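Appendix B, record 7
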Amino acid sequence: MAAPAYAYTHSFTQAHSITFLSDNLRNALREVIRENGLSPANLMQDWDGIERGIRTWLRTRELLRILVEFYKPGASVASARWDFPIEYSGSGVDEDMWPDKAYLQQLIAKSARPTVDCLYRIVLQTKDNPTPVADFVDCTLRSTGQLSARQAGTVIATPHMTAAVMYWR
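Structure tokens (predicted):
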């Protein structure tokens, strides 16, 4: 009788994709905020809570998009906005994980810049009735007013999910 044969395969699980996507979304959000002349300190300070929502809703496939709204204090209209839509289909190829930092930089360079007196907030948009996550509350998006959306394609990819980008100017 022959001895059993064993094979070693290396594959990324969905958990790896969630971690990779979440980490690179943080980097992309930080870059968008910083390159628009604002400090990403609040993003970094609040990241643990934001990440808890991102990872929970990626795992349950309830996260639709992450937004950065730039606005003047008290305004109901956004001065600028960046959307990172999430797709739950990736390449399906193990180890096909990449952020396109150079492309994101090109997009930032040609986008409209909010004024220095603007603030920003991070919004996670989910499907209706998502899994509850502590400290998250319903909110209303600011109007995009005269801004127009520019679809720009994928900026982060994994075998299981991707994040695209859309900016408003």
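Remarks on this record: Residues 26 and 108 are 16 Å apart (CA to CA). Helices lie at 14-35, 41-59, 101-110.
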